[in-house]
Structures are given as C-alpha cells and as structure tokens.
C-alpha cells in the first residue's frame, strides 16, 4: 500500500504500553495467576488495541506467546482481552457519533463512509457458520491485506478519516465504528433513521480477513444473476438488493479507483471534498430517491449508470421495486432503513449477544416497560356507541354534557347510604 497511515500519539502510547508490558514479562518470566489478575483494565486495553491496530507492524507487537504468559492457569487470553474490552461502550459510541457528525460537516465524506461500512459487512457468507471465517461486519477491513482487495480501492482514505476517532475512544471496536459512521452518514445526508444495534466484536489479526472476491463486480457478464449470486450468499433478497443499491444516491465513482466513471463531470468538478469522479445523481451528498428517478429517466450523460444499476430496471423482479422507489420516497426510505440495518449486522458477533441500541436505554430485544399513563392519555377518539353509553349513564345520575354534576353529588349519596346503614342497625337492635 503506497498510502502510509500516520502513527498517532495514542497509537504510540499503546505501543510503549505494549513494549513496557513485554519488558516486564521478560523480567518476570514466572508471572503468577494472581499477579496477572492485578493487571489494570487500562493496560490490557492498550495492549489489545495495540495488537489489533492496523497502524502498527506486527514486528513491534508482543507475540501471542508473550501474551499467553499473562493469562491465568493457561486459560488463553482471559486476562489480557477480557470480555469487557471485546465490545464498545454505549457512552463512547455516543461521543464518537458526535465526532463523526463533525467530521462529516468539515470533510463531506458521507459517501466513502457508507461504502466502508458496506464493504466490511458485505463479505458475509451465510453458508459458513464459524466466526470470523463467515466474514461480515467484524472490522477486518482495517487490515492492509483486505484494503488491498481490488473492490476496496480508495477505502484506505475512509480508514484514515476515522482513525483519530478510533484512537480517542479506546473501547469502541472498528466493527462498530465502521457501521456507526455509515449509518450516521446516511442520516446526516437526509436519509432515514436506521434502527442500528451495536456491540460488534473485532477480529484481531490480518490472518482473519476474508479471501478476495466476495464483493460484487460492477460489470459482470450477467449483472442480475451476479447480483443474486453475491447478495443471496449474504442472505439478502431481491427487495434488499434494490433498496441497498439506492445508496448510490450518494457519492461518485472514480476511474483511478474502481475503473468506472468519468474523471470529472459538471456535477463533480468543483467538489465538495476532492473534486472529480462521476456521480449517480445531481446532488450526490443528499440522500433521497433520485438514484431511481435518474436511472429511470436516463436524463443526463453526466450521471453514472453501472451495468449492475441498469439491471435493476431490466430484471422483472428487481424492476418492481426500482419503479416503486422512483415513485415513492417514503417506501424507499422504509425499505432502505431495514435493509441497511440488516446489512450492518451480517456476520457480526455481538457482546452482549443481543447487541444494544444507542437511541434508548433499553437493550435490543427487551419488551418495553408498561406505562399506564401512555394508555390512558392516548389521543384515540371514543366510538360513537361508547360516547352514547357514557352519556346515558351520566344522564341517569342527573347530569348532562352541558350541566355537569355538582361536585358534592357523590358525597351526598355517601351520606344517605351511611345514614340508612345507621338507621337499619338501630332498628335491628
Ligand atoms: C449492488 C452492487 C454494487 C456494486 C457493483 C457497486 C459498485 C460500486 C462502484 C464501482 C463504486 C465506485 C467506487 C469508486 O470508484 O470510488 C461504488 C461506490 C459507492 N458505493 Fe457501491 N456498489 C454496489 C452496492 C452498494 C451498496 C449495497 C452500497 C451501500 C449500502 C453502496 C454504496 C456505495 C457508495 C456510497 C459509493 C460512493 C463512494 C464514494 O463516493 O467514495 N454500493 N460502488
């Protein structure tokens, strides 16, 4: 890879922590179980993040054998990579989301962040059960070996943009950060709210990256069949293929990256962001249904239509959805949001297993708490027959909608009953 990523201060700190830890191990080769248990959470974090950082060559990192010396009773990595640091903390994810919003405002990198999230998740193979061999949203795209896959050309720039945020929030995993960045970019570009969950665990080394060739080609001999082959392998269906392709409402294709598109058009020559490339839509930083409208109308030579985009209006099953989305933006937004959330979960291992949401305090999958007030203050209108019934009972007591009952009406009744009870007891005696 020609682009070399800068080693940040945080990464350097992690590196020195790792080096210090290795040195300690060398000085004290017989670290006992209790001593290993005393290792602070902070240093175990630095160590694990240093090991999994794509920024650091493996030559500088403690090897598995030295890490093992910290584990208690030969129980693998239990002390070093405790479950606590396997997945992101909600608070840090929320702060990271604010930083991503700032990044979007200053660099207009919405499209490439969406593509990054999609390419991390889109390697998923539903026919492989084991994690991480099955691929998917596991952060493997941070490693050079996967960034170098032909389909990922240019995505190193997205990783460079996110790395400072990753360095700032030590508990946030790459797998979560990539998906958080993508969903935030869609929402900030005017797209639908994506029902995301978090807690994805990262793969730890480049040897866990999927093999090249799992992502779709833009110009295969039979585009519709190819799309089905690739997306069905991910467990996605025709509706989801069409809805997700609508993400091309954002961004541009660059001949120097994918080989597709013009070097520049009237819509891209001035940026924003690095100028150039060919977009699918006129306003390529705005998320709406214009991708479907523009392909349908074929109205401008300056707008891109890849063979796989064209297939959406040629294949009878795809066409049904593409036509619908061109007409109905709300239908597109609804289906897109569902499909995007599904894509972002493909192949992911969550900790806790059900994941968690950032938008309410309830973990996913838990039933909503019963709130009586919610049901008693609902705006639902009473039916006419119910209104009549209530009116009849009300009038039976001498009230009417125009003449409300006296406030002491029930008090009087209670006094009468009490007097009657008293008199009865006197008579009985
Ligand atoms: C259906 C199969 C797909 C094919 C064949 C395909 C192909 C491509 C190609 C060739 C590019 C241009 C890359 C470049 O030159 O920089 C691109 C960009 C992009 N793709 Fe796709 N893609 C597909 C599906 C998706 C999906 C499912 C998503 C998201 C859910 C997506 C999101 C994007 C975005 C946002 C860009 C613009 C990136 C930028 O401006 O930097 N694509 N895609």
UniProtKB/TrEMBL annotation:
Domain called Plant heme peroxidase family profile: residue spans: 170-366
Record field: catalytic activity: 2 a phenolic donor + H2O2 = 2 a phenolic radical donor + 2 H2O
Required cofactor names: heme b
Identification of the protein by name: Plant heme peroxidase family profile domain-containing protein
Protein family according to the UniProt entry: Belongs to the peroxidase family. Ascorbate peroxidase subfamily.
Residue ranges, compositional bias (Basic and acidic residues): 253-269
Keywords: Iron, Membrane, Metal-binding, Oxidoreductase, Transmembrane, Transmembrane helix
Region (Disordered): 248-279
Lineage of the species this protein comes from: Eukaryota, Viridiplantae, Streptophyta, Embryophyta, Tracheophyta
The species this protein was found in: Rehmannia glutinosa (Chinese foxglove)
Top-rank lineage group of the source organism: Eukaryota
Entry annotated with the keyword Methyltransferase: no
Segments crossing the lipid bilayer: 409-428
């Amino acid at each position: 890879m020609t682009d070399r990523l800068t080693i940040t201060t945080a990464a350097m700190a992690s590196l020195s922590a790792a080096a210090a830890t290795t040195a300690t191990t060398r000085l004290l080769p017989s670290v006992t179980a209790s001593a290993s248990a005393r290792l602070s959470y902070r240093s175990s974090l630095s160590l694990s993040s240093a090991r999994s950082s794509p920024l650091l060559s493996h030559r500088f990192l403690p090897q598995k054998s030295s890490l093992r010396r910290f584990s208690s009773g030969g129980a693998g990595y239990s002390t070093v990579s405790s479950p606590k640091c396997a997945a992101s903390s909600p608070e840090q994810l929320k702060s990271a989301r604010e930083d991503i919003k700032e990044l979007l405002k200053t660099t207009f990198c919405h499209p490439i962040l969406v593509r990054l999230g999609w390419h991390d998740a889109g390697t998923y193979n539903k026919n492989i059960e084991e994690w991480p061999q099955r691929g998917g949203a596991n952060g493997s795209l941070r490693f050079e070996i996967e960034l170098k896959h032909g389909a990922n050309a240019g995505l190193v720039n997205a990783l460079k943009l996110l790395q400072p945020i990753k360095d700032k929030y030590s508990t946030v995993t790459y797998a979560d950060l990539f998906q958080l960045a993508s969903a935030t970019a869609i929402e900030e570009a005017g797209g639908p709210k994506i029902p995301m969950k978090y807690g994805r665990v990262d793969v730890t080394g480049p040897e866990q990256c999927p093999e090249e060739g799992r992502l779709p080609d833009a110009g295969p001999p039979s585009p519709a069949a190819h799309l089905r082959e690739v997306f069905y392998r991910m467990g996605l269906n025709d509706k989801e293929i069409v809805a997700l392709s609508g993400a091309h409402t954002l961004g541009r294709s660059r001949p120097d990256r994918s080989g597709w598109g013009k070097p520049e058009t009237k819509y891209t020559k001035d940026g924003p962001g690095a100028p150039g490339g060919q977009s699918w839509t006129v306003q390529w930083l705005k998320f709406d249904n214009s991708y479907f409208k523009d392909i349908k109308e074929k109205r401008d030579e300056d707008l891109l239509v890849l063979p796989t985009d064209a297939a959406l209006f040629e294949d009878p099953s795809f066409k049904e959805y593409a036509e619908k989305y061109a007409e109905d933006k709300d239908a597109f937004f609804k289906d897109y949001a569902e499909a995007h959330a599904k894509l972002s979960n493909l192949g992911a291992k969550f900790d806790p297993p059900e994941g968690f949401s950032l938008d309410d305090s309830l973990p996913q999958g838990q039933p909503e708490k019963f709130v009586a007030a919610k049901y008693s203050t609902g705006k639902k209108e009473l039916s006419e027959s119910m209104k009549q019934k209530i009116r009849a009972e009300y009038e039976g007591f001498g009230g009417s909608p125009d003449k409300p009952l006296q406030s002491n009406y029930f008090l009087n009744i209670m006094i009468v009953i009490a007097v009657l009870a008293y008199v009865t007891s006197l008579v009985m005696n």
